[in-house]
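Table 4 source record.
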Amino acid sequence: MMPKTKKCIILFDGECSLCNYYVQFVIKRIKKQNILFIAMKSHKGKEILNKIDTLLNLEQTIILIENDKIKTKSDAILEIIRKLKFPYNILTFGYIIPRPFRDKLYQIISKNRHRIFKNNNCEIDNKTEN
């Protein structure tokens, strides 16, 4: 059962600098929308994760919850990019790449992010963009 909300919720790792950079990038370039950024390991993040279908593999992924739908991995990234201002939203052309290839690249980056991005202190707390 997914949480009911009118806001778009983005659940992110919250423990690595890659997440920090990505969320900061999105916040600065997002179109005017109601978006809530929540670290997965925060109290609210854990609460939401407990409500989401446990059949999903939620480890090392970003999660977008919007209109009663859940998107993860590359689909979540591309849907978030779609919400950005021009010219960044053009990057949704990534949808032409088949999902298995996009998700494989996502998994490679996700598994190695702590090694690649040495500063693992995430400065993002729960943030809302109105």
